[in-house]
Amino acid sequence: MATLRVDPQRDALLAIDIQNDFCSGGNLEIRGGEEVVLPVNELMSHFRHVILTQDWHPPGHHSFASAHAGRQPRETIELAYGEQTLWPDHCVQGTRGAAFHSDLHTDAATMIVRKGTRRELDSYSAFLENDQQTPTGLGGALEELGIRRLFVAGLATDVCVLYSVRDARKLGFDVVLVEDACRGIDIGGSLEDAIAEMRSAGVLIAGAASVG
User: Fold this and answer.
1) 116 is a domain residue
2) Strand partners, 50
3) pLDDT at 149 > cutoff 90
4) By percentage, how much of the chain surpasses pLDDT 70?
5) Residue 110 included in any domain
6) What angle separates helix 162-170 from helix 190-200, to the nearest 10 degrees?
7) Which of 23, 52, 67, 154 is disulfide-compatible with 33, CB 3.0–4.6 A?
8) Strands, E, within 17-60: which ranges?
9) What band does 2 get if pLDDT is binned at 50, 70 and 90?
10) Spacing of C-alpha 118 from chain mean position
């Protein structure tokens, strides 16, 4: 693929949830999660605007299986806004698990978006919480900055990355998925399905080496 030239005026890097709990040894470990750190750090050097997202759950968050008697992780329940997968406790505010991976160049970030901060409402997307109504504020901030294209990387390809890309496209942003700077959970073919969905939504799939 030809080099994708970054326009500092209209392009931004969006790095999703590169946090300890999603890396090796974390409470919601994604295999190879820490492997995205190096390519994301390298990508940062090409962008004026770098946005990091951070799951930031209060204790007892309603997406935690432990908050529902008799329930186990990976089960689904109905909450006020619809179906919710239950997860192990993860990315609890102020804990080591919620912190960014120590090798991630967080000083390069021009914006950090914290999501899932309401106990009763989960948030996979960087743009909208899971009720599909409550904005995080990221969309408006990008509009004010004049950003029109997002290069997206991070964790997990088939959950928070996918949901963020969906909403970015709905909001009219062009999107490039930097595939080798992402890792997925991949349950029952969910990773392949996520990539196929993003392609069908007009997302360009690229490698980190093609960005410059």
Assistant:
1) yes
2) 13
3) yes
4) 100
5) yes
6) 10
7) 23
8) 50-55
9) confident
10) 17
The single residue of 23, 91, 160, 182 carrying the catalytic annotation is: 160
- Is there a catalytic annotation at residue 131? no
Active site residue 89: no
From 115, 122, 167, 182, the catalytic residue = 115
Q: What is residue 197's three-state secondary structure?
A: helix
Euclidean distance between CA atoms 123 and 144, whole angstroms? 23
In angstroms, the CA 33 to CA 28 distance is: 10
Q: Active site includes 17?
A: yes
What's the domain count of the chain?
1
pLDDT at res. 1: 63
| CA 150/CA 183 separation, integer angstroms | 18
**CB-CB neighbours of 191 under 10 Å:** 18
Q: What is the mean pLDDT of residues 76-97?
A: 94
Q: Average pLDDT in the 169-187 region?
A: 97
Half-sphere exposure (CA, 13 Å, Cβ side) for 115?
A: 29
Phi-psi region of 130 (alpha: psi -120 to 50; beta: other; left: phi over 0): alpha
User: Would you say residue 92 lies in a domain?
Assistant: yes
Domain CATH code at residue 77? 3.40.50.850
Q: Is the dihedral of CA 79, 29, 98, 34 positive or negative?
A: negative
Is 3 within a domain? no
Residue ranges making up the domain that contains 159 = 11-210
Structure token pair of residue 16: 């999703």
